[in-house]
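Thread amino acids onto this structure.
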């Protein structure tokens, strides 16, 4: 029932409106709880490409084709400079090379701040 302009809603109408409001609030609360339970768990299985860059260089195609065993490519970094860690082609951190047994790894020494990462998203 919709009240007319000249009358106030009766007690039953007010109770119906309040009940509808309670039901809507309960549904919203349930939806929020379900979303919180999911949180970021669904992201855990998303694959990411992680790469560590030792340095960069530009070479000519003819030099690339002439490469063979023992060929040396000069990189733009000096030995001891930090290595760059990229996730999906975005700089995330810098670090130093470490050996663990017979494997190489990277020890992070500087993580790019969240604000810097967000700033670079548009680039």
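Threaded sequence (123 positions):
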């Amino acid at each position: 029932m919709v009240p007319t302009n000249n009358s106030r809603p009766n007690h039953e109408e007010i109770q119906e409106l309040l009940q509808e409001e309670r039901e809507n609030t309960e549904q919203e609360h349930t939806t929020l709880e379900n979303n919180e339970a999911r949180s970021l768990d669904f992201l855990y299985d998303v694959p990411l490409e992680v790469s560590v860059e030792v340095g960069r260089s530009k070479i000519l195609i003819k030099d690339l084709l002439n490469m063979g065993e023992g060929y040396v490519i000069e990189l733009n970094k000096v030995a001891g400079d930090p290595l760059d860690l990229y996730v999906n082609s975005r700089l995330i951190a810098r670090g130093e090379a470490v050996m663990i047994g017979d494997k190489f790894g990277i020890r992070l020494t500087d993580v790019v701040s969240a604000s810097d990462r967000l700033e670079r998203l548009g680039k």
